[in-house]
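The records we work with from here on pair a chain with its fold. These numbers are not coordinates but entries in a learned vocabulary of local backbone shapes. To see the layout at work, look at the sequence and tokens printed below.

. . .
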Amino acid sequence: MIEAGQFDLETGAGLMACPRCDALHVEDELSEGETARCIRCAKVLGRPRAGAFTQIVALSVTSLVLMIAAIFFPFLEISRMGFGNATSLFGVALAFSHGWLMPLTVAMLGFVVGLPALRALLLVYVLLPMRGDGPPARHAGEAFRLSELLRPWSMAEIFVIGTSVALVKVAGLATVSLGPAFWAFCGLIVVGAASNVFTCSATIWDTLEDRGAFTDGREVVADPQAVAQRRSRIATGGRAG
């Protein structure tokens, strides 16, 4: 751990690389309402907001509710000449759960349902205990790192776009009615986009480090001694004061 404003070129401690252009910046503590931007490309590097953790937790819980609705509610209904059939994503998964299409079904459910739901659960696990001045949960650093790794692989919006393209072709052969699950998926995309707007990775990492969570050992903190005491309490099962 090093104090804010210091850095080490050999280990990279105290330095932050812009995720867009890789320009190096000296890491410093930001107050609520301040914004740090890259000096080269102007990408936002950090932007603490009051109540952001609570908003992200609420959006993550909303995503889980919408995901459950998207799985079990009717997704669409196709009818022609008086005959119709409605199905849900869960019903589609069961229909293709045998034979050589089963791996494709598992992959689809994993990328479309499993990964977004897992990422939402990880965000709730990491951020819910830290609302206000609460200490982080055990292994919060590892959980948030995993949620960041899963971010590019959450493909609910790709599924909706692909389904919409397919329905345009099917609409010429039969009457297609969109069910509540389709609109739940659309709502899921909007909620996910809002969550990404409120989620500032640098701010979450800084909060985890300041409150004593274990990360990579090179974190910049305002008071290294206070962080060391918090880590000791967390390691022994106590709560930080």
Observations:
- Strands lie at 2-3, 15-17, 24-26, 36-37, 44-46, 76-80, 83-87, 175-178, 220-221.
- The chain has a mean pLDDT of 79.
- The longest strand covers residues 76-80.
